[in-house]
Write the structure tokens for this entry.
Amino acid sequence: MKSWFMQASADRAALELRDVPVPQPGPRQLLLRLRAAALNRGEFILGHGLTKAGTTKPVGMEGAGEVAEVGPEVQAFEKGQHVMGRCAGAFSEYALLDEREAMPKPASLSFEEAAAIPLVFLVVHDMLVLQGRLAPGEWVLVTGVSSGVGVASLQAAKAMGAHVIGTSGSQAKLDALKALGLDVGIATRRPDFHDAVMKATEGRGVNLVVNTVGGTVFAECVRSMAFEGRLATVGYVDDTLKAEIDLQALHARRLTLFGVSNKQRTPEQRAAGVPAFVKDFLPHFASGRIRPLVDSVHRLGELPAAKARMETNAHAGKIVLSMP
């Protein structure tokens, strides 16, 4: 089968399409014949902890397809079923999927749309529901709202009955996201959005911040938070890993700051959130209330071109590979 590998050095990552044997499922694994897989920026950024210098590994972290084989202890899924999930080596024709990570693909969605769900929307569920405790009527600020996780945060927050403010360097992208329910768009890449946030929220600030940008906007995010506000740090595409914390604001406004990452979690810890996600969010996909925004679809052999598009920041939503 065809499978993409990435070799990382201290300062660059090289992609290589290899011919490798089709893997065999373990006792509680599914062999997935992939039909689509989605790109995630963090996997390709050196220094973010997902790829270590001097290593070579298969790439791709989420996908959708058909169950080709099941392990002897698998009970919930069967051969031929259409599923989606987080799985290592998803930029391949076949990959192994832990039964605990597998979810039925909503019949209303294409494989390309389904591939854009597992990783990013599980992260969003963690931010908005498990840790963020978002309630209907609350205000959410999403920095970098046109990114994959930004768009997913917007869609999920709106489905939960919240109001959403988003920042982006592109006014055109903000205008396009109004169709998905964006209440307030702020065209900026700088930490200068506090006044606009306060105006939109009538001086109260936002209840939940989804910071996809990083340290350059962290302090401004804290300034923009309401009493008992929560701030989720999910990425740092600006490569700024340190920021000042206003301890007086943290203390007086009873703020909560938390990170969203699977880097140090065990497989059991990662899988523990899947049942709640299926219960809380899957009905929104089945009903059409949330439809993943797919920016573009590339063939399996076009991963370098897909990665290049992602790195230009020209996209809105998810970039997806489609398998032959």
